[in-house]
Amino acid sequence: MLQQTNVEVLSQLSDLLIKLDENQYKQPLKTLHQHAISQHVRHIIEFYQCLLKGYVTGEVNYDARERKLRIEQDKDFALQVIATIIGKLTLWETDKPLQLVSHYGTNDRLATPTHFSRELVYLIEHTIHHLAIIKIALNEAFPSVDIPENFGVAYSTLAYKANK
């Protein structure tokens, strides 16, 4: 289930990117403090790449992102990377133990026990958070872009609204 939910949020991102032209994807926006939608996309993608790498190595370190600018500069490449991530997410077992490594701006290495499933939960929330930011920026800068109503809305919020 966790893998499928991650696939859903990444698919929402892919579906949106297909609607954007290169300018909308790469243009620095005032709402984002002169950052572009593409920079949020890169950020999302790189968190997934860190988790997938960590699945293999046993250590997940979100601070050690590669920051590949090609993701920011080439929307089609970003879409290809998302498709690759989606393909890999469904292959692996969720109960694998991992270490979450952080430094918090120091040389000290903090390693915290975690599991692949716990990190999948985190990435769902992290991705939805960035989708919400992207939605705000697009609504402000490019109101003609058709964005689904539930894009960037947390699953808990959707459930709450459904039960009202």
Task: Give a written overview of the molecule.
Helix 3 runs parallel beside helix 5. Helix content is 60%, strand content 9%. It is globular and about 45 Å long. The chain has a single domain, classed as dinb family like domain (Four Helix Bundle (Hemerythrin (Met), subunit A)). With 164 residues, it is mainly α. A three-stranded mixed β-sheet has the order 1-2-3. Strand 2 and strand 3 form a beta hairpin. The model has no long low-confidence stretch (mean pLDDT 94).
Short description:
This protein is mainly alpha-helical and 164 residues long. 60% of the residues lie in helices and 9% in strands.
Attribute tags:
single chain; three-stranded mixed β-sheet; 3 strands; Four Helix Bundle (Hemerythrin (Met), subunit A); mainly alpha; 164 residues
Record the SSE blueprint:
Blueprint: H1 2-19, H2 22-26, H3 37-57, E1 59-60, H4 69-73, H5 75-89, E2 97-102, E3 110-115, H6 116-141, H7 155-162
Helix pairs in contact: 1-5, 1-6, 3-5, 3-6
* Helix/sheet category: mainly alpha
Number of strands: 3
Number of domains: 1
Which architecture would the CATH scheme give at its second level?
Answer: Up-down Bundle
Query: What is the CATH class?
Result: Mainly Alpha
Which blocks of ≥5 consecutive residues have pLDDT under 50? Answer: none
Give the N-terminus to C-terminus distance in angstroms.
25 Å
Q: Any idea of the CATH topology?
A: Four Helix Bundle (Hemerythrin (Met), subunit A)
Query: Main sheet?
Result: 3 strands, mixed
- The number of helices is 7
Tell me the CATH superfamily.
dinb family like domain
The helical percent reads 55-70%
**Overall form:** globular
